[in-house]
Amino acid sequence: MFYRHLQGPIEALLFASGQPLPADKIASILNIHPGHVHTLIAEMIEAMSVDERGLTIVEVADGYQICTKPAYAEIINKLTTVQDSKLSIAALETLAIVAFKQPVTKQEIESIRGVKSDRVITTLLDRMLIKEVGRKEAVGRPILYGTTNEFLQCFGLKSLDQLPAIANLLPDDSKDDTKTV
Which of 178, 155, 158 is nearest to 166 (CA)? Predict the structure, then answer.
């Protein structure tokens, strides 16, 4: 391909960014068409797919990011100890509600969960997994919450379209209850 000489600069941009870079941003920096960026990155992914390579490029959160291959996770864990940052069951429940119902208010979250959710929402905001996305046109104009790009990164999603359908997550006996006769 004519632009193959730009693979090095693309790799450098992805490495230096540390965050997913959208193809249009890469294209504007390199002054080329975004379609060429997608083609070049596809070629780079193919070249990096050989077993001897420790890095790969993944498409996540509406952009591209350079990452280590999962096969080397054990070795990388020896390099540094990562702080355990697991989410509580309450946080995971709340995050799921926000992901599937967004935009959603705190009151709607609490109605679904059946318990107060102030602390959990604060935790998810602090971890930048959710954010304020606006205000609902209702009495009191409550805050609306939605997920962030960090959420997409954390769960390895390109976009929210990759979330499974809620019906697929229900146990088989629950699906029977949702059918109408």
Answer: 178
